[in-house]
UniProtKB/TrEMBL annotation:
Species of the source: Tessaracoccus antarcticus
SMART domains per UniProt: HTH_MERR
Entry keyword Electron transport: no
CDD domains named in the record: HTH_YyaN
Gene Ontology MF term list: DNA binding; DNA-binding transcription factor activity
InterPro entries membership: DNA-bd_dom_put_sf (IPR009061), MerR-type_HTH_dom (IPR000551), MerR_fam (IPR047057)
Source lineage: Bacteria, Bacillati, Actinomycetota, Actinomycetes, Propionibacteriales
Name recorded for this polypeptide: MerR family transcriptional regulator
Length: 135
C-alpha cells in the first residue's frame, strides 16, 4: 500500500527553511536538540523533508511563536513519535498552551488599552497646548 507520505516529493533543507521562514541552521539546531525528529536522508546523506515533516515544522514554529518553551515543544514531538495516532496527551499539552496564550493575549489587550489611553492623553495635551499657543 502506498501512502501519501511515500509519494510526497522530498525537499532539501534550504527549500524547506525558505518555505517556513527560518534559517536552515534553525532546523538543524531543532534536530540536534530533539525538538524535531531526525529527517530522512538521501544516498548522499542530505536531509530530505516530505509534506508531513514540513507540516510538523510549521506546527512547531507556531508553538514557538506563541511562547511555548522548547522543552515542551520537544515533549510534543516525542509524543507524536511515540504514537502518531494517539492524541490524548498532545491534546492536553495543546489545551494547556492555548490557555496560557489566551491569558497572555488578555494581558496584552489590557496593556494596549492603557497605552491607548496614554496616547490619547498626550495627543489631547498637545492639542490643548497648540490651541492655547495660537490664541
Amino acid at each position: 500500500m502506498t501512502t501519501t507520505a511515500d509519494t510526497d516529493p522530498f525537499l532539501g533543507i534550504g527549500t524547506v527553511a525558505a518555505q517556513v521562514g527560518v534559517a536552515a541552521d534553525t532546523i538543524r539546531y531543532y534536530e540536534r536538540q530533539a525538538i524535531l525528529p531526525p529527517p530522512h536522508r538521501d544516498a548522499s546523506g542530505r536531509r530530505r523533508y516530505n509534506t508531513a515533516a514540513i507540516h510538523l515544522i510549521e506546527v512547531l514554529l507556531h508553538l514557538r511563536d506563541t511562547g511555548m518553551p522548547l522543552t515542551q515543544i520537544a515533549e510534543f514531538t516525542r509524543l507524536v513519535s511515540l504514537d502518531p495516532a494517539g492524541v490524548h496527551d498532545r491534546l492536553h499539552l495543546l489545551e494547556q498552551h492555548r490557555d496560557e496564550v489566551t491569558q497572555r493575549i488578555k494581558s496584552w489587550n489590557d496593556s494596549l488599552t492603557i497605552i491607548d489611553q496614554k496616547i490619547d492623553d498626550y495627543q489631547q495635551r498637545l492639542s490643548t497646548t497648540a490651541t492655547a499657543t495660537n490664541q
